[in-house]
Amino acid sequence: MPDFAVIIPAAGKSTRFSDPHFKKPFALLDNRPVWLHSAEKFINRSDVKQVLIVISPEDEEFFREKFGANVAFMGFDVVRGGAERADSVQRALEKVHADLNWIAVHDAVRPCLADAWIDRVFDAATQSGAAILATPVTATLKRSDPSGKQVQETIPRADLWEAQTPQVFRKDLLLKAYAARGSFQPTDEAQLIEKLGHPVAIVQGSPMNLKITTKEDLKMATQVLKALPKPALPNLDHPFADDHLWR
User: Considering only 92-101, 103-112, 136-145, 235-244, which range has the smallest mean pLDDT?
Assistant: First the structure.
């Protein structure tokens, strides 16, 4: 069975969340922080051997004080992130255990994740080397003029997909993609794999796997969680339950 490391970026600026007290990964959702909902989806999986949470250096003191007990109990590794998402993921890649050959990257702010979706995208990646969850675009898409005030054209939605996470890759492939990126700042990891010319498999996800960007999204996520299976209790026999590191 392939063994996976899971990288969970939580180092963004949260500028669109507009909360004076919390960045969106740290906001409460059903009385627990958003990032913890996302991370715990992986902690009890037998094929996941390492979970890395990437936070901004400016949040480190707050994170240690607020969530240190969660990190210690669940065995997460905490990594200091960089200026942009890709920089943060690249730093986490450097901390992945040498014996793990598969990497999943999952947004800290996608807390509504089902085990079946993880199973499918993990399986597709191990067959193809790279796979993402995505949903087909169903809305009518309009491109505006530069002012953003008038419609310039309608974009055909055939063959368009909205990318989600987890995105899962063979480690050597992802390392090669990051080594080749230079100053390019991708919007997701799959974009780097595409630039290498390697195919990325699409696994149909669900609209319930929503990404929290605004407080309205947080309200929707509260309702979506009620429709998802309840997470299992932490497994105290997990192979890295007592092996957390602050990096």
Answer: 235-244
Q: Are 91 and 79 in contact (CB under 8 A)?
A: yes
DSSP-derived secondary structure letter, 60: H
140-190 residue pLDDT tens: 999 999 999 999 999 999 999 999 999 999 999 999 999 999 999 999 999
Q: For residue 62, which amino acid is it?
A: F
- Inter-helix orientation angle 60-74/34-43, to 10°: 30
Exposure string for 2-11, b = 16+ CB within 10 A, e = fewer: eebbbbbbbb
For the chain, the domain total comes to 1
Instruction: Quote the pTM value.
Output: 0.89
Q: How far is CA 71 from CA 14, 64, 140, 204, 239, in A?
A: 22, 9, 43, 31, 15
The CATH number of residue 137's host domain is: 3.90.550.10
Using alpha carbons, list the distances in angstroms from residue 106 to 84, 133, 144.
Answer: 15, 10, 31
| Rounded Cα–Cα distance for residues 137 and 141 (Å) | 9
Looking at the domain assignment, is residue 241 inside a domain? no
Is position 222 within any domain?
Answer: yes
